[in-house]
Design a protein that fits this description.
The chain is built from two helices and four strands, in the order αβαβββ. The chain is low in regular secondary structure and about 190 residues long. It is elongated and about 55 Å long. The protein has one domain: Pectate Lyase C-like (3 Solenoid), CATH 2.160.20. Strands 1-2-3-4 form a four-stranded parallel β-sheet, covered by helices on one side.
């Protein structure tokens, strides 16, 4: 069986311009599953409860946008800035967000099970009550993030920075000697 590239999948998807998506959303449409967006340029957009399941976004510039209760299962964002975005109770199961800026984002009670968050900037993000089970946070910056009540079972924090992160319980998470703990020390097997 031949591997299928992300580009060949994008070629088969419905391509939608972001202004068109905003117009349709404004008219009450919420279902935009499996669409391809070349560039989502929407500073401070209100996209609550949008369904972008399995969508691919080439570039996303959505700082300060409201994506609360959005369905973003399996969404792929190749490059993006969602700094200060509101993603309260959003479903980001299996989302591929590696290297996306989510600094100061409100991700409280969001589902990030199995999400690819490698290299993400999650500094000062609010992840209170978020489900990060099985998420890959390799090399992510979680400096000053709030992880109180977050579910971290089998989440990978190898090479991640958790300096000054609040309420972090790494007992069931995966860490290595390159993981920086909330106290500024590197993780060791004796922790």
């Amino acid at each position: 069986m031949c591997p299928v590239s992300l580009q060949s999948i994008c070629n088969l998807m419905l391509t939608l311009d972001f202004p068109d998506l905003l117009d349709r959303y404004g008219l009450g449409e919420r279902q935009f599953q499996q669409v391809f967006l070349k560039f989502a340029d929407g500073f401070d957009c209100d996209l609550r409860e949008i369904d972008l399941t399995a969508a691919v976004i080439d570039k996303a510039y959505l700082p300060y946008s409201n994506l609360s209760q959005a369905k973003l299962c399996g969404v792929v964002i190749k490059a993006g800035n969602l700094g200060d975005a509101k993603l309260l109770s959003a479903d980001l199961t299996q989302a591929r967000l590696n290297t996306v800026n989510l600094s100061r984002a409100d991700l409280r009670y969001s589902c990030l099970i199995g999400a690819d968050l490698r290299g993400c900037n999650l500094s000062r993000a609010d992840l209170q009550g978020a489900n990060l089970q099985g998420a890959d946070l390799t090399g992510a910056d979680l400096t000053g993030a709030n992880l109180s009540q977050a579910k971290l079972k089998q989440a990978c924090f190898n090479g991640a920075t958790l300096f000054r992160a609040a309420a972090v319980n790494l007992n069931t998470a995966e860490c290595d000697r390159t993981t920086i703990l909330p106290n500024g020390h590197y993780y060791s097997d004796s922790n």
